[in-house]
Amino acid sequence: MPQTPALAMILVAVAGAAIALQSPINAALGRQIGSTLGAATISFGVGFVLLLAITVIYGDGARLAHALQAPLVLLTGGILGAFLVWATLWSVPVLGVLTLTAVLILGQIVAALVIDHMGLFGLVARDISLTRVLAAGLVGAGVILSRF
Questions:
Q1: Membrane-spanning residues where (predicted)?
Q2: Is residue 21 pLDDT above 80, yes or no?
Q3: Mean of the pLDDT values across residues 115-130?
Q4: Is 107 exposed, middle or buried (CB count within 10 Å of its CB: 0-12, 13-18, 19+)?
Q5: Would you say the pTM of this structure is higher than 0.85?
Q6: Cα–Cα distance for residue pair 84/92, rounded to 1 Å
């Protein structure tokens, strides 16, 4: 599959829609079983089984063993993802999907500014510019507007 900016934007937009769907679905599962942590666990379990099957089908199963040599910090993505799933399914009944998504995006943008500026994880460092700060500010304004 060719890696083009247009395709990447489409994939990320679809992933964004999936996040908007995932939060209320997981929250409903949490209500159904009476546990937000249990719902997050089930969500990750189902996702794990699916990803494992796809990894094996694509012939990359043996590559999973390479994770044993990876720096531990590179294995924290699962922890962060688990926190994301639990935090969103816990918060969606309180905030609603729109505000939850706006706050989630604001958090991502603020973290992205820092990650880009510091060039973390081998990324090219990028300056924090006025336009980038204004973009974050506009999302912050969107958070405020989403509550009224």
A1: 37-58, 70-89, 95-115, 127-145
A2: yes
A3: 94
A4: middle
A5: no
A6: 12
